[in-house]
Amino acid sequence: MSRGTVKNRVEKAALVMKNNLKAALGKIEFIATTTDCWTSHRRSFIGVTAHWLEPQTLQRQCAALACKQLKGPHTFSVLASALNEIHTEFNIREKITRTTTDNGSNFVKAFRVYGHADENNNLAPAAESGKVDNDEEEEDEETENADVEFVEAGAILDEDDCLEYQLPKHHRCACHLCLTT
Fold first, then answer.
1. What CATH number matches the domain at 3-123+164-180, 3.30.1340, 1.10.10, 3.30.70, 3.30.420?
2. How far is residue 44's CA from residue 94's CA, in Å, rounded to a whole number?
3. Is the pTM of this model over 0.85?
4. What is the CA radius of gyration of the chain?
5. Where exactly are the structural domains of the chain?
6. What are phi and psi for residue 129, nearest 5 degrees?
7. Where are the stretches annotated Disordered (predicted)?
């Protein structure tokens, strides 16, 4: 068997496995991920795994989503870009409940800059109380809208400047937290 034949077979098998994993993850409502990065021989790498409960049996399942080389050093923006790309590739961006990482400053900053704003899952004050006075709210909106300039947002949203990523909520590994405090 030649080198080319082996390469083609491995690539085909990997594609079949990836498609099967995408199909399986498509049926799952909630997914957690773990992520780590490292450097070896001046090359940076990232590894991402997905974890979920099988809906029928409630058995834990996991799968490796990626283990790939990063372009350049593993800075917060490079990590955010790679994570966003992996989550998008497997169509799980909206399904991820948390991503667990070590306490590295690059991950902490990536999730602080590109992650959800509310780390503690706190509700807004109006939503917490469950009481909203609609009459006052409508009057406030009318007075606020008097000085508002409306701008076409479609063109702004269509621009892809590769600077914005949407990362899930961050969870730091407890073992790493104990070692750093």
1. 3.30.420
2. 27
3. no
4. 21
5. 3-123+164-180
6. -75, -25
7. 121-146
